[in-house]
């Protein structure tokens, strides 16, 4: 369903590879000013990972065999509030590489793949541009995410593969909003605390 009202962004379909950008009114500390990359969106629920919350732990400390492939800054990122003991890994395939036939990966969208961390990183080293490891994830039950989007908690926008492994994660929220053009681009300058404006 497209929003055809003047001055409104055309609706981006929700699906793997899209980004959920936290609206300025979303104050839940788990998601305030986050950018979530959707890995799965099905009738029974949705799963994604927060792209802009690095933790203090390094991939080298937690999963040493994957540290050479980890994109900068080499941290494990906090993927969301669900099951922080579960590690998920996303990788970006190099141009010309396809997930079909690669052991230990499942295609998500375009060159973005979900990596089985029990697989051999050496087999992927020449085929990926980098990996990002996440502790925990963001999950929604059937219909829950659609309800949050309808309520205005999230802006749904197209994702770029480089969003997953960007070293410029600190201002990812603002950069993603700015590249959408008006009116969303104007929100990129919205102050964190209105009282400080």
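^ structure tokens above, recovered residues below v
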């Amino acid at each position: 369903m497209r929003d055809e009202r003047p001055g409104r962004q055309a609706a981006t379909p929700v699906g793997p590879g899209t980004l959920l950008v936290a609206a300025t009114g979303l104050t839940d500390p788990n998601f305030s000013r986050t950018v979530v990359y959707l890995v799965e969106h099905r009738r029974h629920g949705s799963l994604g990972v927060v792209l802009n919350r690095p933790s203090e732990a390094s991939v080298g400390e937690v999963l040493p065999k994957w540290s050479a492939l980890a994109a900068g800054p080499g941290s494990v990122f906090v993927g969301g509030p669900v099951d922080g003991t579960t590690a998920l890994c996303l990788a970006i395939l190099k141009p010309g590489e396809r997930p079909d036939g690669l052991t230990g990966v499942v295609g998500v969208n375009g060159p973005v793949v979900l990596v089985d961390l029990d697989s051999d990183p050496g087999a992927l080293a020449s085929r990926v541009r980098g990996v990002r490891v996440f502790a925990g994830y963001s999950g929604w039950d059937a219909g829950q995410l659609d309800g949050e989007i309808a309520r205005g908690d999230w802006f749904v926008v197209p994702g770029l593969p480089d969003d997953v492994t960007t070293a410029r994660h600190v201002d990812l929220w603002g950069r993603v909003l700015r590249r959408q053009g008006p009116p969303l681009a104007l929100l990129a300058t919205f102050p964190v605390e209105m009282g400080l404006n």
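The longest strand covers residues 128-141.
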